[in-house]
Amino acid sequence: MKLTFMRRGVAAVAAASLVTIGAPVVASANAAEACALGTVCEGALSGSLGDSPFKIIMPEKFNGTVLVYSHGYRVSTPIPAALAVPLGLNTGAYKAISNPAFAPSFGSSVAYQASNEAEVSKSEAVAERLLTQGYALAGSGYARQGWAANEGVEAGENLIGYINSGAIAKTKKIMVWGNSLGAMISSTIAERNPGKVAGVFGTCGVQEGPMQEFEIPMTALYTWKALIAPNLKVANYTAGPAGYSEALGDLATVVTLLGGFATTPVTPAGYPFAQANLLAGLMAGLPTRSSVYDGQTQNPAFASLGTLAALGGGFQPASAGGSSVVAMAQNVAAAAALGILGRYEMEMKVRQIGQIPPNESANFTDNVNVRYSKLLSPEQRGEFGDTLNATTVIANPLNAMLGVLDSTRGSKTARFPANPKAVAIVEGLAAPTGAYKVPTVLITSTYNEIVPAGNSSAFLDQLNASYAKQNKAERGIFKAAAFYTIPPADGWTKFLPGAKGPSDALSVAALGGSGVGHCTLTSKQILRSIKSLDAMVSAKTAKEVAAAKRLVFSTQGVNKDRLFQPDALKKPSKTK
After folding, report:
1. Are both 322 and 294 inside the same structural domain?
2. Which residue from 63, 67, 88, 341 is spatially nearest to 203, judged by alpha carbons?
3. What span, in angstroms and rounded, lies between the C-alpha atoms of 143 and 376?
4. pLDDT at residue 313 greater than cutoff 80
5. Are 71 and 194 part of one and the same domain?
6. At residue 92, does pLDDT exceed 70?
7. Which of 87, 118, 189, 374 would disulfide-bridge 575, Cβ 3.0–4.6 Å?
8. Cα 59 → chain centroid
9. DSSP H helical segments within 338-396, as ranges?
10. Helices (H) and strands (E) in the chain, counts
11. Cα three-residue angle 459-187-175, rounded to 5 degrees
């Protein structure tokens, strides 16, 4: 059912009367007044890192379980509309603002800025279903945005303390959950507070932490610099506004070049554009499927038109290989947004924390000794070797491109050495260690262009290893699982009759919101996962844990193969 809530403020004193307010008030983490059934309570909690807004939504009938949500990554800097709109950074928590400084370079002063508003769920549909099931929903904004892991952990811990101080009466247990960066934050909260948190649920989480996450776009963007756009800055952006202009310039270059991808056979550096970009994505570990291009459906117009040239040249999806190439173009664009805007924000954070002066590098991912040819697996060579070599721009294109990349190995001028101080700061940011403390459920799309699914499998392996080291007489039953959603097996790319390219809308609709893209999970997949976690928390036997897992395995779009492992994360620093 659709629920309508009365807005209500939460005061710092228990005796405060009910009032309707226009903005949150700062609340104490103790002596809280209980949030009444069927209402929304909002406020802000103070912490050492700043004030974090919170929201609590109460069901009409409470089942005793509170779900505390941590939201995902939000770019901390204003983004010109020309970049924000194609990258999807103009909705939800991103609000339109005016920034006249953007007008000369981007043709408009319209920009989008992320707010720190609190969220209680990944979607309204999921929230409504959870409320009808009796769950109380709570969530925090963070004192800052960007890679706000420390701020998110503090906000979540403060909110849990506030709930336990009486903000939600008759609370029996608290489970934490989150999306993307929020999933990592939730796992960290659970690991640090096992006595207060009954279980943790993460969707598409960056469980392996910031260093692993930023190495992905570094691989793609360094390949771009070497083979496609030599003018890219890539890393160690100048301190302050000048550096942000550099970052925006990098992102504009990537987005602009990818916009003309289909009709641009040769890169400014003289290499085959389609193959160079595909190689960049493969080495980074990005998927070869997107929400529009399934990597398998052939263009029906190709049979009647007869030649690729008749489709308009470049890389229209005339074949399965061509479909993967264009899918990678979409995926690299998405990865570049984090790899550029996120990196700028992280480098500025590093400078502030470490008091690193402007004349000293703030780069935190070292690629000096990476052997890029080792990042292309034998399986990838076998599957995409023909496509990577399908060009006459240069002779032996795959070997030529890999040779260019590896030729600079060891060079601290051609590549990007990291500042040890910056590395130490990033590695010291809040993140889970993989210690098994509470029941854990993870779910992710198998083909995720922002957070590869290997994050979940690697983290589950760490939980297993941690559990195995615990005292057998005290550790109890292992209660953890990772699930992977998959797309339709027969493909989803759809073409209008006579069309040279696919229909984006029809293809996305055929995909059905499962398996492809960053956290494109269905409501049922999320709801079943939460139900599974709840059942795991209560399970007394291994049989009951297995039954809890079946709740998710039986859900449409979830891979039912219990032994399935997604592609392992690429480890550039470990190449020899």
Report:
1. yes
2. 67
3. 40
4. no
5. yes
6. yes
7. 374
8. 29
9. 343-354, 378-388
10. 18, 13
11. 130
Q: State the total domains in the chain.
A: 2
Radius of gyration for the chain, computed over Cα atoms and rounded to the nearest angstrom: 24
Are the beta carbons of 345 and 146 closer than 8 angstroms? yes
For the full predicted model, state whether its pTM sits above 0.90: yes
- pLDDT value at residue 497: 78
Write down the H helix ranges in 355-419. Answer: 378-388, 397-406
Which residues, in sequence order, are CB contacts of 258 under 8 Å at separation 6+?
A: 277, 329, 332, 333
Higher confidence at residue 480 or residue 91?
Answer: 480
To the nearest 10°, report the CA torsion of 452, 453, 459, 460.
Answer: -170
Q: Which domain holds residue 257?
A: 214-427
Same domain, 421 and 449: no
**For a pLDDT cut of 90, what percent of the chain falls above it?**
81
The pLDDT confidence band at residue 323, using thresholds 50, 70 and 90, is confident
CATH number of residue 192's parent domain: 3.40.50.1820
Average pLDDT over residues 83-89: 90
Task: Compute the residue count for the chain.
Answer: 576
Strand order, beta sheet including 79-80 = 79-80, 110-114, 94-98
Beta-bridged to residue 203, according to DSSP, are 179, 443
How buried is 544 (Cβ within 10 angstroms: 0-12 exposed, 13-18 middle, 19+ buried)? middle
> Which of 393, 427, 461 is at the close of a domain?
427
C-alpha distances in Å from residue 353, one per residue of 186, 421, 425, 429: 23, 10, 8, 11
Q: Which two tokens mark 316?
A: 């229209």
Distance CA 344, CA 326 (A): 27
> What sign results for the dihedral spanned by CA atoms 402, 331, 446, 115?
positive
Residue 174 in contact with residue 198, Cβ under 8 Å? Answer: yes
H/E stretch holding 445 reads strand 440-445
Tell me the pLDDT band of 319, cut-offs 50, 70 and 90.
low
240 and 384 in a common domain: yes
Is pLDDT above 50 for 15? Answer: no
Say if residue 202 is in the same domain as residue 229: no
Please check the confidence at residue 4 and state whether its pLDDT lies above 50.
no
Q: Taking a C-beta distance cutoff of 8 angstroms, is the pair 504, 294 a contact?
A: no
